[in-house]
Write a structure and sequence with these properties.
Helix 4 links the parallel strand 6 and strand 7. The relative contact order is 0.18. Helix content is 40%, strand content 22%. The chain has a five-stranded parallel beta sheet, sandwiched between helices. It is α/β, with parallel strands linked by helices. The C terminus is likely disordered.
């Protein structure tokens, strides 16, 4: 089964590019442009992977990490950020983020990472 990817990002251009990438590979794709939308989607339809921007219109993406922290069945979460900030990256990792990736992430690299995290059957992976 293909993984369900949720992108939490407020840039329509980034969302469009990621949608094209993941849907072309047969992955299910959802999007949220705010923290509120992301939290609603977690409750309605649990994703396997979350690609999370930190700068959102209604707050910091770290709020999403705090919401997911310690929850059973929490998705694999990676932060995609334009901020090359070691302290912020360490905070994200401490909150349970799998990896912090600096934008722009090459599409093939991002796809490889997501598929590696998910393995063949969904959650898990390396």
């Amino acid at each position: 089964m293909s993984p369900h990817i949720l992108v939490v990002e407020d840039s329509p251009l980034v969302i469009g590019a990621l949608r094209a990438l993941f849907e072309a590979m047969g992955h299910r794709f959802s999007e949220a442009s705010t923290i509120a939308d992301a939290l609603r989607l977690f409750r309605e339809d649990s994703p396997d992977v979350v690609l999370l921007d930190l700068t959102l219109p209604d707050g910091s993406g770290t709020e999403v990490l705090e919401f997911l922290r310690g929850r059973d069945g929490a998705p694999i979460t990676a932060v995609l950020t334009g901020h090359d900030d070691r302290v912020l990256a360490e905070r994200c990792l401490a909150l349970g983020c799998r990896e912090v990736l600096l934008k722009p992430v090459p599409p093939r690299e991002l796809l490889r990472k997501v598929e590696g995290w998910c393995g063949v059957g969904g959650r898990g992976g390396a």
